[in-house]
Amino acid sequence: MNKGKWLFLLVLVLMMIPSLALAKVKGIEDYPRVAVLPLQNKAAATWHDFGDYAGSATDNLAFELTKTMRFECIEREELQRIVGEHSLNLTGLVDNATAAEIGRLSGVDYLVMGSVASLTAKKSSGGVHSRRIEGGAGFSNNTVAATVLIKVVNVETGRIVLYGRGKGKSDSAAGAVAAKGTIVTLGSTSVSDEQCENAIEKAVKDAIHGKDGILSQLDGK
């Protein structure tokens, strides 16, 4: 091969490098673009009305990630629109192939998947059920404790690159009156759904900013 052809090939390769770099998934430390999937409820005791709260919990997770100034989160509505148009399954339980397809269609580098691993009340045991109420109801002192797990998955490889665990608690005052809404009963203890939500929100924040959170892993602590 003559010198002219070698020079032509070299120029061609150099022209391709920028496009290859743009196609490559950003590193987790390079302000990557991420999509937050709906928070799942994997607690041993089921909170039946959790589905009504999952959307706001997911938004709260995205908000906390954005506050770190380490991630660019796409809006939940935009992600739902994209996956809806392509009939994909938008849950926290996607396989590697689906994760890669979501990443390609939405232009994200990573998927953030979260779940409520446990939801309990102090000095209670057993399952969780809920009932709708009209008006108020009295509550005794109790503490709701939640544990949230978060994983950040590379859409190209399906590999988990970060794993965070957070815990949160919400205390109720003696004789507090629940607003019109749902009573959630954990074992023999009745709590409001708002108290469950508060505990989960604190756990989400801890899973990002706490000692076992994803920021600690990013910073090597």
From TrEMBL:
Signal peptide boundaries: 1-23
Keyword annotations of the record: Cell membrane, Lipoprotein, Membrane, Palmitate, Signal
Residue runs in coiled coils: none
The protein's name: Curli production assembly/transport component CsgG
Xref: Pfam families: CsgG
InterPro entries: Curli_assmbl/transp-comp_CsgG
GO cellular component, one term: outer membrane-bounded periplasmic space
